[in-house]
Amino acid sequence: MNDPGEDLDLRLVRYFTVVAAHQNFGRAAADLHVAQPALSRQIQRLEKYLGVRLLDRVPRGTRLTPAGQVFLPRAQALLRAARQAELAVRAQAGTERITIGYVEDLVITAAVRELRHRHPDAEIATRYLSCRDVGALSDRRVDVLIARAPLPLAADGVLTTPLYEEPRMLVVPRGHSLAGRASVAVEELAGEEAAPCAFQTADWTSYRILGAGVPPIESYEDKLELVASGRAIAVLPVGDRRSSLRPDLVTVPIEGAPPSPVVLVSRKGDPNPMIRNLRLAAKAVLTAPAA
User: What is the radius of gyration, based on Cα positions, of the chain?
Assistant: First the structure.
């Protein structure tokens, strides 16, 4: 039972929402930059405070209990309200602050460094987002998102600024029939079944795993392992260098595929002046990596 004189710890609430989003303590701990045993203890503290179990461990991760399902939307609303209160006070005090979300392999260091150079007194934070963090912008966990389009966000609710575009490449296991090709035509990939990341939508997502019966996969490393094992092939932007770290994978340019756009997205009507400042800094210094 909780102590009647003790207030609900918002940090524990946030931990719970992250575990609920990932449905896995290990991935949630990595996202939160805490040790998994410590995260488990914090969730137990929250459950003890509330007097109910919120999460059940299952063979493939974790799932919400009925009480957890009831608590989750209220926990998310509580965090949003706290964030809005913080923003309102900071706006009144004139404090410049921004949290920048970014996804997958994108390197935004140059834009963050440029923004800090232009606004040395501002509070600037970054947050890596996984495929499951679709709601990070609308939930106000981040103020702006740098990602690869297309994104499953309502166009009338966001402001999108194109930054640059990248061609695409095919990733296949060494020894694959396409591994020795100078290039592959996009028509040769027609009809392949795709298992896209939840962070993206439409036919040409930035990251596509192609192969019959391929299940949805969240971890990028698991995607590469699936390709290396010969069960699938992958379509990636050429700026993603991570596959080149594996000697058992080969990359092949794709001809005729639409480019992969990198964009900066913010909530439409957001008054935070640092969003415009970041937009200017990002457009000035972020460019497509050399092929």
Answer: 21
Cα dihedral across residues 106, 140, 23, 6: positive or negative: positive
Which helix (H) or strand (E) element contains residue 229? Answer: none
The C-alpha atoms of residue 246 and residue 229 are separated, in whole angstroms, by 12
N residues, the chain: 291
Q: Are strands 144-148 and 97-103 parallel, antiparallel or unpaired?
A: parallel
Q: Could you tell me the pTM of the whole model?
A: 0.64
Phi, psi of 33 (to 5 degrees): 60, 45
pLDDT in tens, 173-229: 998 988 989 999 988 877 555 554 444 444 556 677 777 777 666 677 888 888 898
How far the first Cα of the chain sits from its last, in Å, is 59
> CA nearest 237: which of 42, 120, 117, 107?
107
H or E stretch at 146: strand 144-148
d(CA 72, CA 109): 33
